[in-house]
Amino acid sequence: MAGAAVAAFGFAGLASAQNAPTTDNGAEDQAAQALVWHEFHYPERGFVISFPGVTERPKAESTPVPGQNPLLQHEYKVEAGKDTVYSVVVFEYPEGRAPNPPKQDYFEKVVTAYAKGSDTNLRRKTPLKIDERPGYEAKAEDSKGKLNHLITMVANGDRVYMLISAGPNKHATSEDALRFRDSFRLLGGPPPPEQDKKEG
Q1: 167 in helix, strand or coil?
Q2: DSSP letters of 52-100?
Q3: CA distances from 180 to 36, 109, 166, 173 (A)
Q4: 94 vs 43, 160, 185, CA distance in Å?
Q5: Are the C-beta atoms of 83 and 168 separated by less than 8 Å?
Q6: What is d(CA 106, CA 198) in angstroms, rounded to the nearest whole number?
Q7: Which of 27, 28, 139, 186 could disulfide-link 172, Cβ–Cβ 3.0 to 4.6 Å?
Q8: Where is the signal peptide (predicted)?
Q9: Residue 29: pLDDT above 70?
């Protein structure tokens, strides 16, 4: 399952954010305001997302999931300054092998594995829908309360998407975290489960 992949998720950017020294908040606010958001299309992975501070389309780091062959994990990550990271992880299953539609406990296992891999504690978990597809959202923070995470998941066909943004305290409810999450759109794939039932 994808939980094994998340446990091995690359947290270099998040770790550097967590260990970054405290700086002047005014300077950080100005730097955040200076970041321009751009929308990027990934038709080969079935999604659209906006990232801040970059003009070229971020490339994926693609790796097989240990012990879960042939499950693949594609990660698109942007570091916005010293203390904020935005990432999209795509778990790509062989045709017909993905949980479809996934149950809530699937998402819970994945976000729990993420929390373990990032050394954070889950504070809030809730099911939600994105583009009428089943999804899930969670908030997490490190033990010192310095780094705050917003984790959003949605499934579509043979892919499961995980959106992650991590930043200073209260980042999970910040305008930028919500902007990143809300910029995500699905491209193609099967119809939503409920629509598919109606048409059938």
Answers
A1: strand
A2: ES-SSPPPPEEEEPTTSTT-EEEEEEEE-SSS-EEEEEEEEPPTT-S-S
A3: 12, 23, 11, 11
A4: 18, 12, 22
A5: yes
A6: 25
A7: 139
A8: 1-17
A9: no
More confident of the two residues 67 and 199:
67
Is residue 115 within 8 A of residue 147, CB to CB? The reply is no
Q: Which amino acid is at 90?
A: V
Distance CA 196, CA 157 (A): 12
Residue 165, C-beta contacts closer than 8 angstroms, at least 6 positions apart: 84, 85, 86, 87, 149, 150, 171, 172, 176, 177, 180, 181
Render pLDDT for 67-103 as a digit per residue (tens, 0 to 9). 777 889 999 999 998 889 999 999 999 988 888 788 8
This prediction's pTM? 0.83
Residue linked to tokens 């539609």: 101
Q: Is the pLDDT of residue 8 over 70?
A: no
Structure tokens, 94: 């062989």
Domains of the chain, earliest start first = 2-19+26-199 (3.40.1000.10)
Report the Cα 189 to chain-centroid distance in Å: 19
Q: How far apart are CA 10 and CA 12, in angstroms?
A: 6
CA 89, CA 165: separation in Å to the nearest integer?
Answer: 11
Which of 113, 40, 39 shows the shortest CA–CA distance to 73? 113
pLDDT of 24 strictly over 80: no
Six-digit token string for 31? 């730097």
Identify the H or E element spanning 37. strand 37-42
Please give the single-letter amino acid code of residue 27: A
